[in-house]
Specification:
It is a single chain. The strands form 2 sheets. A 3-stranded antiparallel beta sheet has the order 4-1-5, covered by helices on one side. Strands 2-3 form a two-stranded antiparallel ribbon. The protein is elongated and about 75 Å long. The longest helix has 32 residues. Helix 1 packs across helix 2. Helices cover 43% and strands 17% of the residues. Strand 2 and strand 3 form a beta hairpin.
């Protein structure tokens, strides 16, 4: 009887550890992808995990907005401060159209074109994969 109880407790600990591992992976995935669940990951998740991911994404999105003088906080921003305010980017996605930047005015984003733009204005597009940040050697 004692051996049976010990094995049940051990199995329960293993299942809880596995569940915690998967939940942590989903939390990390949310931060890596800025809330967009990759298409190759979706079929690997059960309905409860998909619901957790959506709820966690909604929670992060709601808490990342701040009113008042602070404006909008981007929790997906880099942990280290950028070394440059402007970055060189190449457009790799069609249909982006025009964007308006604070210092450069209106910029037309056509596939294959390169632009030297303020980091803050294009950081979201770089994260999405619509623009590719170029290093000094690629320019």
């Amino acid at each position: 009887m004692i051996l049976h109880d010990a094995s049940i407790r051990r199995n329960k600990r293993c299942l809880l550890a596995y569940h915690a591992y998967r939940i942590n992976k989903l939390r990390n995935l949310r931060w890596e992808t800025s809330g967009t669940l990759p298409s190759h990951v979706s079929p690997l998740l059960c309905e409860a995990e998909l619901e957790f991911f959506r709820a966690y994404d909604k929670l992060v999105a709601n808490t990342s907005l701040s009113g008042g003088t602070v404006g909008i906080l981007d929790y997906n921003a880099d942990m280290l401060p950028p070394t440059e305010n402007f970055i060189m980017v190449r457009v790799v996605e069609e249909g982006l159209g025009k964007i308006e930047t604070e210092s450069c005015g209106v910029v037309e984003l056509e596939v294959g074109t390169m632009h030297y733009l303020p980091r803050g204005d294009v950081e979201g597009l770089v994260r999405r994969g619509s623009l590719v940040q170029l290093s000094g050697e690629e320019c």
